[in-house]
Amino acid sequence: MNREVESIFKVIHYEHIYSNKRKLPYPTFRVNGSNEIYFKNIEDVESYMQKEADFYKNKLVHQSLDDNYMDILYAYVILEIPLKEVVNVDALDQYLSFRTYLPDGTLWGKNEYGHFMSRHATGDEYNYWGRKNQFWGRKPDEIKFKPGDIVEVLGCPGNVFWSNETVDLAIVTKVPPTIAEVEDMRKKYIETHSGYDLCDHAMSIEFDHSLDTYEVIPYAYGNIDHAPTACVFKPTKQISAQRKKHLMNLYEKNKLEQSRLSGT
Questions:
Q1: Which of 27, 69, 141, 201 is within CB 3.0–4.6 Å of 126 for a Cys-Cys bond?
Q2: Of 127, 129, 10, nearest to 77 (Cα)?
């Protein structure tokens, strides 16, 4: 089935909320995602972000703290949303594609696959949306972190695992699968399934956005959680030696537990 899906791109500005910028807010801090703007295509989105970066590069917005907007802005989140389709505004993970950009307009993460099913889909349309929603793995250069790295995780639309408008300090324990690894997973799945289980709709449930995550241990949680690849960032602030030690202790404890469970 061939069909053309019209869409728009929603750009969300995530900005720091400072009560006192000189007090480090780790392990969790709030960001404000109330400012949005919409465009017809991704080229206009990127042009807009570049103009914003150029305009605010030297423009002070908090004179008392000597801040410019590049210090206030945390990230841009871009959701591609279908037109003429019902979208649940309370859902954090309905999109045709998903991107994150740094304050200077640099692309940070991108999901080319979607996570959306038309509520009016029938017959072949289930497989059409199924094809669009399948995750096929990450290229090696898209996996920016390794186990043991300390990161920040942004809670935003597109991240169904995290609370919206929060940033959490965490440590990586496992990285998302590569294209080769997903191909191997798909091959094993196909060998052991048949019938409906091999249609695109069923495959999109087995190989959906939930595979495209880092396994992390959030500082404030202490146990394994998952964070979408495009929502995991480098730390933006200094991390105290005490916090680093706490995260490394959680990481080493998890390694020992995994070794015990696997018998190695």
A1: 201
A2: 10
